[in-house]
Specification:
The complex is a heterodimer of chains A (333) and B (236). In chain A, a hairpin with a 4-residue loop joins strand 6 and strand 7. Chain A is of the alpha/beta class and 333 residues long. In chain A, strands 3-2-1-4-5 form a five-stranded mixed beta sheet, sandwiched between helices. Chain A is globular, with a radius of gyration of 20 Å. Chain B is α+β, with helices and mostly antiparallel strands and 236 residues long. In chain B, a hairpin with a 4-residue loop joins strand 1 and strand 2. The chains are: A alpha/beta (333), B alpha+beta (236). At the A-B interface, helix 3, strand 8, strand 9, helix 7 and helix 8 of A face helix 1, helix 5 and helix 7 of B.
Chain lengths: 333, 236
């Protein structure tokens, strides 16, 4: 029986989660929300995490009924992410590990998303589409690594959506992506945008600057809703296309969508249509698990801990750059 | 028209491939069927563009003396393209998996790939989807069998055929060529992760294939794109 606590704070979400043998007993979160037209910056985000982490930790312990002495391993996000916010969680995790005299384990954020998705959906060996504000990757498991088959060659899809929301001065509450999704539902007119697929890789920066450069003209002919609709239709079609390509390449019949953009229902719907055509199944989760959280870190840490992975206290650092395929997966065959 | 009933050969991610007799010849028909997940306007645009790219690049390859299936007919209305059928072939992917352990084969193939890519790029063609599945090895003289004998390789009896030019374009920039190489490196790393030097050998042959040089800029762009990919901060 493994009880693990996880601290996540690689971007503007701060999460503490606790898992007991694959059961989620606490999943607490706070989001740092910036005013319309603004993105989150490292220093302010770190301050937000500092101000909230004790309350979130207390909430998670209370909610779960778990006391520190019952915990087997303290997990935190080692990277990738923004340095300063990562550091806040790492420091609190180290302090807890010392205070409670427990082992500490740094977890790769991307691996956290994948393992959480597999836990929640029971997908067995899926092709994974990992889409968030900082990442866009197509991943499949092969010989002890989650290997990256395709990814963005410039900005992440979530970053593209968030920045477009800023161009339109949309609210960041609850999240810019959510507001684009709602606006897109009201859009009716489709405006053709650049479509950029290179093999299994994609590029989004061209689409964003195309929109930015013409925004005043575009708003003469199209409503913001139409533009959100056109943007979503284009970038999601690109993602579904490279996912299908990767599935064909690996002979896979399961897709798992993880990461913040993964809770977009239109993306899930398009993926579903693609999968239906090829007799495959799509797995996705809702905002509780798609969006960054502490549980994913706790669960990935619990898996690593159970398979014997250990981290020396002196190694409990953070890193802004930490690729998914750098991690040796000891808990899968 | 002399066109026999087409037989479905392969159902791919974006196209169905049929074989039939067309004007007395064994012919491949590649039909880019509608993808229902995407907006119909976008779908039509993508399909038209890809058929156009494929036809254009095949023609340009002919000019550059790069072997591709010969182009017979383009039918935009029915989203189809008719091409030469190469009965005896093996994809580089299957070849490396089956025979890759024999080093001499491995090197010969890698060099062929490097030289062909260099020729493509020297003629300003960017493939756009370089993988080991999009390269075929065929005997210089097609036989009736559908098997492939690796011994042909040692005797220099084979040639490399590039296929699937749907994502290609011509008059490409140096950056595009760099990305092309990067896409190949990534594809080989994920598909043939047990042969780490495959790409290195290809790249070496690519660099030295044309004695006139002029490759430095492409290589430095490639390294720039690669650095961008590896070092990019990945914020969750």
């Amino acid at each position: 029986m493994v009880i693990a606590i996880g601290f996540e704070g690689s971007a503007n979400k701060l999460g503490v989660g606790i898992v007991r043998d694959g059961q989620i007993v606490a999943n607490c979160r706070r989001t740092y929300i910036t005013p319309p037209g603004q993105g989150f910056l490292p220093r302010e985000t770190a301050e937000h995490h500092q101000q909230n982490i004790h309350a979130v930790l207390r909430e998670a312990l209370d909610q779960s009924g778990i006391t520190p002495d019952m915990i087997d391993v303290v997990c935190y996000t080692k990277g990738p992410g923004m340095g300063a916010p990562l550091m806040v969680c790492a420091i609190v995790a180290r302090t807890c590990a010392k205070l409670w005299k427990k082992p500490i384990l740094g977890v790769n954020h991307c691996i956290g998303h994948i393992e959480m998705g597999r836990l929640i959906t029971n997908a067995y060996n899926p092709t994974v589409l990992y889409v968030s504000g900082g990442n866009t990757q197509i991943i499949a498991y092969d010989r002890n690594k989650y290997r990256i088959f395709g990814e963005t060659i410039d900005i992440a899809v979530g970053n593209c959506l968030d920045r477009f929301a800023r161009v339109l001065k949309m609210s960041n509450e609850p999240s810019p992506g959510y507001n684009i999704e709602q606006a897109a539902k009201r859009g009716t007119k489709y405006f053709p945008l650049p479509y950029c697929v290179k093999g299994m890789d994609v590029s989004f920066s061209g689409i964003l600057s195309f929109m930015e450069d013409r925004i005043d003209d575009l708003l003469q002919k199209f409503t913001p809703d139409d533009l959100c609709y056109s943007l979503q239709e284009t970038v999601f079609a690109m993602l579904v296309e490279i996912t299908e390509r990767a599935m064909a390449h690996c002979g896979s019949d399961e897709v798992l969508i993880v990461g913040g953009v993964g809770c977009n229902v239109r993306l899930q719907e398009m993926m579903g249509v693609m999968c239906k055509e090829r007799d495959a199944r799509v797995f996705a989760t809702d905002e509780r698990f798609c969006i960054d959280n502490g549980v994913m870190i706790a669960w990935a840490g619990a898996l690593a801990h159970s398979s014997g992975t250990k981290m020396d206290f002196s190694e409990s650092t953070i890193t802004q750059r930490y690729r998914t395929d750098d991690v040796v997966i000891t808990w899968r065959d | 028209m002399d066109e026999s009933e087409p037989q479905l050969l392969k159902q791919g991610a974006e196209a169905r491939v049929y074989i039939c007799k067309y004007l007395g010849k064994q012919t491949i028909i590649k039909e880019r069927f509608q993808k229902k997940y995407r907006h119909p306007d976008l779908d039509i645009e993508i399909v038209k563009e890809r058929i156009r790219n494929e036809a254009r690049s095949i023609l340009r390859c002919k000019y550059a003396n790069i072997r591709t299936p010969a182009l017979y007919l383009v039918d935009f209305e029915r989203r189809k393209i008719y091409m030469e059928y190469l009965a005896t072939n093996i994809t580089v992917k299957d070849f490396v998996i089956k025979h890759g352990s024999a080093n001499e084969h491995f090197d010969t193939i890698a060099k062929m790939i490097g030289q062909t890519l260099r020729k493509l790029h020297d003629y300003n063609i960017v493939h756009g989807d370089l993988t080991s599945s999009n390269m075929l090895i065929i005997p210089k003289v097609q036989n009736d069998g559908d098997w492939f004998d690796p011994a042909w390789l040692a005797k220099g009896q084979v040639e490399l055929v590039m296929i699937d030019f749907g994502l290609s374009y011509i008059d490409a920039s140096v950056e595009d060529k760099g990305v092309d190489l990067y896409v190949l490196e990534r594809a080989l790393l994920s598909t043939h992760s047990n042969y780490e030097n495959l790409f290195e050998t290809i790249l070496e042959a690519y660099k030295t294939a044309n004695p006139k040089g002029g490759v430095e800029e492409t290589i430095s762009k490639f390294e720039e794109v690669r650095a961008r990919g590896r070092k990019r901060t990945m914020i969750g």
